[in-house]
């Protein structure tokens, strides 16, 4: 399969992508997948690891923006309150949240036996979308072992996209979709930074998709209410405070809107943004700590990168996913096939 850029879908903007055009272009960030395939099962887990150290003890600063809250994710309330994350981030199907949360808690305890006894508990962070249109979600196929396998698979560099990991059974705008990613290089005050985004795309009504060139692909599926979801995870090495991180996360909504999304009543649309700069120590050496922070006068660069990477990441999720039959036997076509059959005139 080919990426959106390779298929001629270029998101307008003056910002250049990183070397892999992926969230892993942010130094230290790694991604892993566990894909489950069996009779009636087309699901999995995707892991995003913010840095290679102990995340509980060196907590990345983060913020969450809930665009439309029809969802069953775990851990969002504490992120919103404290502005940090304490575990890797797992993506899965709706009924896999409990298994993934258990895996995160057990791994954190194994690395830090004082958790819950001599120190605080740990906030496992799991996001979900409903892949029941393709996979039998009632089978509850995702286990803690699958979550651990995705974490063990996490690596830097190229990210596998499309119908893989948590994206295995996801659809968007009537097409097969899944995992997508993109990045942008940022030049601010003669310093180089990166912002990368990974999405779990499972949203958008059939016929609503708008491509960067203005075309509106028809998946030849009957119209239905917007009841999907999308998870947007952004990573950056920009030094941002948690208020600024939430403002950047919010711009993921701009990228979704460019695609034709309107965030329907039954859609769970959530954006998380974290920075690898200035992590928070679980046991600070001093009661007062210093933090670098970008001046708000320069934050528009990050806003633009957030919108562009979200839009392109969703397009990559669509372009990299092959046609797949739904549980009722009706196929979810591949956007790549539609593009080949309907070349730009």
From TrEMBL:
Cited Pfam families: Peptidase_S58
Give this protein's Gene Ontology molecular function annotations.
aminopeptidase activity
> Record keywords: Secreted included?
no
Q: Which keywords has UniProt assigned to this entry?
A: Aminopeptidase, Hydrolase, Protease
**Which InterPro entries does the entry link to?**
ArgJ-like_dom_sf, Peptidase_S58_DmpA
Q: Does the keyword DNA-binding apply?
A: no
What family does this chain come from, according to its entry?
A: Belongs to the peptidase S58 family.
Q: What is this protein called?
A: Aminopeptidase
- Write down the species: Rhizobium altiplani
């Amino acid at each position: 399969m080919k990426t959106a850029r390779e298929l001629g879908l270029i998101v307008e903007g003056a910002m250049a992508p990183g070397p892999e055009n992926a969230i892993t272009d942010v130094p230290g960030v790694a991604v892993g997948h566990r894909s489950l395939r069996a009779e009636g099962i087309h699901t999995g887990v995707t892991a995003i690891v913010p840095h290679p150290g102990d995340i509980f003890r060196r907590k990345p600063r983060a913020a969450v923006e809930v665009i439309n809250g029809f969802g069953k994710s775990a851990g969002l309330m504490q992120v919103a309150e404290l502005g940090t994350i304490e575990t890797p981030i797992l993506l899965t199907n709706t009924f896999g949240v409990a298994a993934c949360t258990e895996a995160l808690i057990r791994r954190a305890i194994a690395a830090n036996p004082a958790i819950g006894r001599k120190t605080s508990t740990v906030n496992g962070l799991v996001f979900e979308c409903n892949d029941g249109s393709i996979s039998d979600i009632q089978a509850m196929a995702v286990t803690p072992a699958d979550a651990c396998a995705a974490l063990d698979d996490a690596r830097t560099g190229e990210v596998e996209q499309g119908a893989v990991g948590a994206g295995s059974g996801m659809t968007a705008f009537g097409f097969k979709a899944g995992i997508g990613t993109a990045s942008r290089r940022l030049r601010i005050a003669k310093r180089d930074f990166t912002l990368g985004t990974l999405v779990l795309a499972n949203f958008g009504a059939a016929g609503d998709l708008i491509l960067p060139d203005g075309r509106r692909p028809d998946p030849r599926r009957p119209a239905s209410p917007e009841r999907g979801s999308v998870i947007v995870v952004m990573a950056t090495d920009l030094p941002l405070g948690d208020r600024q991180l939430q403002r950047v996360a919010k711009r993921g909504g701009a990228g979704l809107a460019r695609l034709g999304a309107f965030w329907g009543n039954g859609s769970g649309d959530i954006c998380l943004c974290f920075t690898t700069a200035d992590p928070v120590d679980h046991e600070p050496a001093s009661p007062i700590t210093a933090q670098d922070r970008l001046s708000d006068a320069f934050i528009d660069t990050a806003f633009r990168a957030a919108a562009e990477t979200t839009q392109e990441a969703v397009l990559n999720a669509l372009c990299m996913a092959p046609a797949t039959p739904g549980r009722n036997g009706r196929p979810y076509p591949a956007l790549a096939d539609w593009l080949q059959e309907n070349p730009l005139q």
